[in-house]
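ok trying this again, last paste got cut off
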Amino acid sequence: MTTPERDAPSAPPESVDARDLAGVADGFERLWTPHRIAYIRAERPTSDPGDGCPFCVAPTRADGDGLIVHRGEWCYVVMNLFPYNPGHILVCPYRHVSLYVDLTDEETREFTALTKAGLVALQSSSQPAGFNIGMNQGEIAGAGVAAHLHQHIVPRWGGDANFLPIIARTKAVPMLIEDVRRQLIEAWPT
């Protein structure tokens, strides 16, 4: 059985002031970033490089597809897919090791040399006012990919921080990753 109310075409919804909906106003604006859910839900690589470790997979791809900036004999430099700032790069050994002390002497020398070269290239390509350099070893220390050692090089500028990372856990990055990668390759010391 049908009723005339159910069968009648519905009128367009009336505009409702969001302040009249359920919830308590907290004074915050919302920046919706649903594309980040893929990263949040992603399983973290284990100690087995066969499990899809991104730092084992990246160098098997063409440089552009793997976001590789520079390849050395023992280590390589890659763009951070989730950068804190434009130009955020990572120095990684090819070998799947989790701790700095696990590097061979050859790997350690090249790891250091590529860190220095990365600083030179970033200084030349984007003139940052400073850098954050470091590595987090182990999940408890904040390593996103704890199974494969990597060192962060983050260029910094005055005023590059705002409320988004602190309050909203969101970072606004003003340059496309491929544009920054191209600039770094052009500025890489020979």
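PB: full thing came through this time. The chain is about 30% helix and 15% strand.
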